[in-house]
Amino acid sequence: MIIREANMEDIPQLRKIYLDSRRESFHWANSDEMSLDDFDRDTSEEQILLAEEDGQVLGFASLYVPDRFIHNLFVHPTAAGKGAGKLLLQQSVEELGTPVTLKCVSDNHKALGFYKKQGWQPVVEEGEPGARYWVMKFEK
């Protein structure tokens, strides 16, 4: 598996991963309101890294470099458990330097457990009821 910077040819696969992953795991959100276009809006002006194996994109991370912030990290549901998320997270930290932050929806217990296992620390829970998230931080 390799981690590399995304290019324009990767966008269709990345859009599908973003849509499929959110529909699969965002049980608190209305999946009917999600679309392929969400990827374009939600990653605007961000550096995008992707995990690829045998020519197939398994997942991606979008980084907002000025704030050392990992905005999105998604792995396609069919690729879960293959290590793509861990490698994307590690490469994101390498790209951004430390300390680095991300936000994780409070109701996404699986993702919260994943980040904690990788050494991330929850700092503060923010947001309004029904839209709460944890700000998480990683330092070497």
TrEMBL record:
Keyword Transferase annotated: yes
Domain of life: Bacteria
Lineage per the UniProt record: Bacteria, Bacillati, Bacillota, Bacilli, Bacillales
InterPro entries, per the entry: Acyl_CoA_acyltransferase (IPR016181), Bact_Acetyltransf (IPR050832), GNAT_dom (IPR000182)
Ranges of residues in domain N-acetyltransferase: 1-139
Gene3D superfamilies, per the entry: 3.40.630.30
UniProt entry tagged with the keyword Transferase: yes
Protein's organism: Paenibacillus silvae
Name of this protein: N-acetyltransferase GCN5
Keyword terms: Acyltransferase, Transferase
Pfam families: Acetyltransf_1
